[in-house]
Amino acid sequence: MKLARFDKDRIGVVVDSNIFDVTDAAGVDPMEWPPVGATRLIADFEKMRPALERAAAEAAPIPLSQVILRTPVPWPNKVVAFPVNYHAHGAEMGAGYRATNQGFFLKPNSSLSGAGEPVVLPETPGREVHHESELAIVIGKTCRNVAAEDWQDYVFGYSCLLDMVVRGREERVARKAYDTFCPVGPWITTADEVPDPSNLRMQLWVDGELRQDANTRDLVLNIPGMIAMASAVMTLYPGDIIATGTPEGVGPVKPGQTIRITIDHCGEMNVPVIQGQGGSTEIFKDPYQLVKKT
Ligand code: MN
User: Fold this and answer.
1) Over the stretch 272-283, which tens digit does the pLDDT of each residue have?
2) Using CB atoms within 10 A of its CB, is residue 66 exposed (0-12), middle (13-18) or buried (19+)?
3) pTM (2 decimals)?
4) In 3D, which of 195, 189, 191, 201 has the Cα closest to residue 152?
């Protein structure tokens, strides 16, 4: 199933180029705040699935082009992110570490946005904002200390994810935390529709220029390893998102450009980049230019 969130916190099932509104069957109140309906739906998904399928079959199709796709899980417990998890990206960054020994960081939930929403650049003159194309894993069940061989029991599905970042040497979280710096979507493809997540081609273009082209088979710390490592430290909850790391080819984006990301079985997002107002901070007062090592 392709499970989406659209317009004002509505839940939809995507089939081909249409979306079917299943908000009522999902038990989601679009007026609810905080917007935890999608988180709860993932927790209850096995029980809810037949009702969702019935509701989707009875709903009128809405062309995807007529809705605004939002981030599928707006209020997870956390977004976990693995830095330097492809060797070739580590080489281009001149990083002497990998996710296997460096571990992970967190992105704030407030950085999440959807496929139908722009990336809004902050006013940080002298700094580049880079795209990082990543596969997102969405956790399906509460878990702690998961053995690597049991990883599949805890995955709900997969999405495309852009880990946007202000380049520099400052604290990683601050550089990756701006609002709209974590587009996820266009929907969640449930795990049963992704036959082999360790063999997914992922590509990213900026205005038609292919920048990143990789396969998840080249992850340094693989998907079972990431779930084992994160859950060794923290309880993972339904709806938690894991950003699995970016391959080589990161680069700057400018206002007016469009970032396109595609991942096998996960669909594609075309995310416009616009200049926002605000976001200036002393953290980024000094200019910085990334000089790639390869
Ligand atoms: Mn990243």
Assistant:
1) 999 999 999 999
2) exposed
3) 0.98
4) 191
- How many other C-beta atoms are found inside a 10 Å radius of the C-beta of residue 225? 17
pLDDT at 293: 87
Short-list 230, 196, 228, CA closest to 215: 196
Q: Which domains does the chain have, with CATH numbers?
A: 2-67 (no CATH), 79-277 (3.90.850.10)
Q: Which amino acid is at 229?
A: M
- Helices assigned H by DSSP within the chain: 37-43, 45-58, 87-93, 99-102, 172-175, 223-233
Give the per-residue pLDDT at 171: 96
Q: How far is the CA of 243 from the centre of ligand 1 (A)?
A: 7
How many angstroms separate the Cα of 290 from the Cα of each of 92, 100, 128, 281? 10, 24, 8, 20
State in Å: Cα 74 to ligand 1 middle.
Answer: 19
pLDDT per residue as tens digits for the range 206-237: 999 999 999 999 999 999 999 999 999 999 99
Residue 246 CA to ligand 1 center (angstroms) comes to: 5
Kindly tell me if the per-residue pLDDT of 73 is higher than 90. Answer: yes
CA-nearest of 196, 153, 183 to 73 is 183
Pairing of strands 241-243, 79-81: parallel
